[in-house]
Each structure stands twice: as structure tokens, then as C-alpha cells.
Amino acid sequence: MTSLLGYRLKLAQHALHRRMEAALKPLGLSPAQYAALAELNVRPDQTNADLAERAFITPQSMQGVLARLETIGYVERRQDSCHGRRQLARLTAEGHVKAKAANIAVSRVNTELEAAVAPDDLQGALALMSRLHGAMIG
To answer: Would the pTM of this model clear 0.85, i.e. be above it?
Structure first.
């Protein structure tokens, strides 16, 4: 049987996604919601399209994510003064608190993932992931 590298990468990605879901569930967040909160925590005033790209979902899906986060009070949006049709999102004070708690939960998952790589192999694993990514984008 061949190594099926792509299939094994997808299996790992799927397992990681499920672990993220489990870690975020007690906080009432999905991985997509977490991605938006984490990104806005670092860089406020982003558009729906910017956030969608960073969360690996479509702009249409991100619109729903942001609408839900806005409804529960974690995100607020305003019109971009330079481009009237664009809306910029940013975290509320409550959103910053939730983002911090979610970062802690996700950090635990990341620690488990890194533990699966021998400590002396972590840099090699990161380099390998970068090479694989580069090979797939061109």
C-alpha cells in the first residue's frame, strides 16, 4: 500500500478539528468562531473576507459566524469610513475575555499535538509542514 500522504494529512487535520471542537464546546464556541475571535484579538477592524480567509471558510460562512458573535455580544461591526460598503469587525470587552479563555483551551490542544512530535523533531515537523504547504500552493 502506498503512503497516501495527503489522506494521512487529512486524517490528522480532521482529528485536530474534532479535538478543537471538544475543547471549545464548554465555552460555547465553534472552531470557526474561535478563529474569528483569535484573529480579531490580534488584529481588530478586519473585514468578513479577511477573517474568512484566515479561518479557512467561505465569506458567506463567515458572515454567519460574525452575525452570531455579534448577537451574543463578542463582536461589534461598523462601516469602514474609507469604503462605505465594507464592515469592519472588532471584539467587545466581553469578546476579549472569551478570546482569552478560548486561547487557553486551544493552547492545551496544541500542546498535545506538539507532544506527539519528539521534542527534538518539532522544528523538523514545522519545516516539513511548511514544505508541504508550499508544494500545494505552487
So the answer is: yes
Q: At what angle do helices 48-55 and 31-42 cross, to 10 degrees?
A: 120
Rounded to 5 degrees, φ, ψ at 90 are -150, 160
The domain of 62 spans 5-137
Q: At a CB cut-off of 8 Å and minimum separation 6, what does 128 contact?
A: none
Number of domains in the chain: 1
74 with 93: CB under 8 angstroms?
no
pLDDT in tens, 23-45: 999 999 999 999 999 999 999 99
CATH value at residue 90:
1.10.10.10
Q: Tell me the three cell numbers of residue 111.
A: 500542546
